[in-house]
Amino acid sequence: MQIIAFFATKSWEEEYLKDKLKIVASDLTQIFIPEILSKEHLPSSRDFALCSVFVDSLIDRTVIDALPNLKFIVTRSTGYDHIDLAAAGERGIVISSVPSYGENTVAEYAFALLLTLSRKIYDGAHRVREETRFSFDGLQGFDLKGKTIGVLGTGRIGRHAIRMAKGFDMRVVAYDPFPNESFAKEFDFTYLSFEEVLKNSDIITIHVPYSKETHHLINEKTIALMKPGAYLINTSRGGVVDTPALAVALKQGRLGGAGLDVLEEEGVIKDELDFIVHGHPEEHSLKTVLADHVLMDLSNVIVTPHNAFNTKEALTRILDTTVEDIVGYIKGKPVNVVPR
């Protein structure tokens, strides 16, 4: 009988997975561990061959070495940069992900951040609730209609963002190393070079995966190419943006504002006490952590806690795909396997 360990699931997710797997994988023993899986949070019981994690777990070489029976990892996410693929590959560990669950979910959230900035919604709500002042003085915003939005990455989420932008009657330009020309023709937008997208856009929204190639895609030099007063929306991964460079640009008024659902070093922000107590062998960048706090304090910045994925519908799709991944592996026909 095989054992699978689920890490950091909510109670409703646990019940959902139990019910689903009871039907399709009745001989699979399930254990649920409330904490994340990382070198600082290794479970006392380590005899499971399969495990399921979310993006807040960090599966590095130390974790893999500490789990001698591990043969399969399913991450309940599209991204998999929280898993050391090389170390897993050396052990022959199969990794599956959830390639599609929230193209509309994340795109909707990107526009929620944009609208919060463009119409000063947070400022207005805070004024009414906290100051009991019912006045629109100083809350003038700007229309999305007629603005140029630059979409970085035209995968599932990026394409949905383009559909939404067209609904707002915006002009769309996009960058992708693998352009989808038929989609561009259907929705009447133009692919440009990365630099040209930055130069021509009033708003940039990021929908690229995190990788060595996209690390700090937005940095001091590329920010300098952006229109003065442009807005940046990031719902992808924090590491795509050089945080200190962004903080400086916003502080100096070079950019108009930013809507950020992800931050570099967000794990430290999420659990600063644990970081203070345990530290980290790789040494988190203190400069980046401080820049995160600067961003959170700026009036023209909206920061939310990696929440773009978080709808009941999207989470249910994640769990359903996770079950498919598990069943595929058990049957010897893995699906949604992460490429090496």
Protein described:
There is one protein chain. With 340 residues, the chain is α/β, with parallel strands linked by helices. The chain folds into 2 domains: 118 residues, NAD(P)-binding Rossmann-like Domain (Rossmann fold), CATH 3.40.50.720; 201 residues, Rossmann fold, CATH 3.40.50.720. Helix content is 40%, strand content 14%. The strands form 2 sheets. It has a 7-stranded parallel beta sheet, sandwiched between helices. The protein has a 5-stranded parallel beta sheet with strand order 2-1-3-4-5. Helix 1 packs parallel to helix 14. About 4% of the residues have low confidence. Keywords: NAD, Oxidoreductase. This is Alanine dehydrogenase/pyridine nucleotide transhydrogenase NAD(H)-binding domain-containing protein. Belongs to the D-isomer specific 2-hydroxyacid dehydrogenase family. GO terms for molecular function: D-lactate dehydrogenase (NAD+) activity; NAD binding.
